[in-house]
Amino acid sequence: MDGYVPEEVRKCEEFMDRKMKPSLVRATNERNKLFEQQKILYPFFFSDLRKNIENLQKNSITNLRTMVNIGSEVYMQAEVPDTQRIFVDIGYGFHVEFTWDEALNYIPLREELLARQIEECTRRIVRIKADIKRFKEVIDRGKPGPSGRQQRRLHTTLHVGKATRLIASVSAGTREHKQLDWLLRFYPGS
């Protein structure tokens, strides 16, 4: 296997296209959804909820008459006999009954959770982009140079469980081998 093996380079590139790039797209889409949630929740839900609770507390309102959206922007009048406990939408269609203080304590926790989720997605995106860049560098080392000679040999195969994964490197134990071995751990099913 001292000669240049284009099939192995093709398999490495295919792995990058089938596993790594879709992972990047999924992580980016997930972060965009979180940004959209943040854009909706911060100005409307959290600030409105906080203001409404503070107004109820400040004015000592114990019962309330209001209009409730029953769907398709159709409203009906409703009476709330006891305003001391409120239901807060916590996501996925679930509502939790809170006291005013519990709801006010929940708001910053929810804001913090959303910020952490966005930060985690951003870290994952950065990691995947770095992985793709390193993978490309190792693959490029295995391609023929201007002289037509192989710059590096592609020959190492790593057996993990039942799956056989192709790794590009000069030989086992090299820095490139370790980089790709490390990278492949994050892309299951390859």
From TrEMBL:
Family annotation (CDD domains): Prefoldin_UXT (cd23158)
Bilayer-crossing regions: none
GO cellular component: mediator complex
One GO process term, biological-process aspect: protein folding
GO terms, molecular function: transcription coregulator activity
Signal peptide: none
Name of the featured protein: Protein UXT homolog
